[in-house]
Specification:
single chain, alpha/beta, 40% helix
């Protein structure tokens, strides 16, 4: 009796439980929707990128997550990073700021300035961004439960310095749903928290249209145990959910961001391409986010 022959290669299954074929051909492209859903960079549905020459022409924005101690110390760090080539800022806030506590609150003892910058007043924001050109350096605020307040502080700081807020670019994380699943820095119950996100989207759509008032963070969902496919599903549904919360302004809501966990595995580049295409097609069919 002949012994069973071993397969030539082992089966490879990705983190979403999908088998990865050893070779993909034009036939697979057709099965997934055809070349029209791949297209060229800079053209709908943007599967291969939103710009024609992508990163060959201009590298992506570099943001090192930064912020510690008080606003003055953080300002010095920001200026050091910019002087050494950083092209954007990603602001870290301490835990009291993240959950809406002032620095003199007894519950904040021992946590002030430890994992990020401490913010209590508008003056703190003014100090943190003193001497930084907010038209040239885009700022990402990594804040969720207290996002509405800190977005207001950032826009007010820009207005006091004479910037046209309607032209101001930047991002706030402001993804409260993932706080209930992955991090825990929420302040209000689920429904009012989500409604507050919708309010910030609606406000920015009218008053700061180039500002991205939400960054849906599938990254944290993935870190909490989700597969890449579940992460992408969360990102897509998250954008639709936030858009629904701002329905009166929905067709004007065009700016949002997505934070995803990326691996070096070539196959998982779909984690960038699929959401781009999905969002473009969704906007085309539904309008807005």
């Amino acid at each position: 009796m002949n012994a069973p022959t071993k397969p030539e290669i082992r089966t490879v299954v990705n983190e979403s439980g999908l088998e990865v074929k050893p070779l993909y051909t034009a036939e697979d492209v057709e099965k997934s929707g055809g070349y029209k859903l791949v297209g060229l960079p800079g053209e709908y549905p943007f599967t291969r990128g939103i710009h024609r020459l992508m990163y060959r022409k201009q590298p992506w924005t570099m943001r090192q997550y930064a912020g510690f101690g008080n606003p003055h110390e953080t300002n010095q760090r920001f200026k050091y990073l910019i002087a050494n080539g950083q092209t954007g800022l990603n602001v870290a806030f301490d835990l009291p700021t993240q959950i809406g506590l002032d620095s003199d609150d007894p519950l904040a003892e021992g946590e002030i300035g430890r994992v990020g910058m401490s913010i209590d007043t508008l003056r703190d924001f003014e100090v943190a961004f003193d001497g930084i050109d907010l038209n040239k350096i885009t700022v990402s605020l990594t804040i969720n439960g207290a996002a509405a307040i800190l977005i207001a502080m950032y826009l007010a700081t820009a207005e006091k310095r004479g910037y046209d807020v309607k032209q101001l670019r930047g991002t706030a994380q402001n993804d409260i749903l993932k706080e209930f699943v992955g991090r825990g820095t929420w302040i209000f119950p689920v429904e009012p928290s989500v409604r507050l996100v919708g309010d910030t989207i609606e406000y920015c759509a009218e008053h700061a249209p180039r500002y991205s008032p939400v960054s849906v963070c599938g990254y944290h969902i993935r870190e909490s145990g989700a597969t890449p496919a579940q992460e992408m599903a969360y990102d897509r549904q998250g954008l639709r959910r936030r858009g629904d919360q701002a329905r009166p302004a929905r067709r004007r809501v065009r700016r949002a961001a997505v934070l995803q966990l990326q691996h070096l595995r070539q196959y998982l580049r779909a984690g960038v391409q699929v959401p781009r295409r999905s969002r473009a097609v969704g906007q085309d069919h539904e309008g807005g986010i």
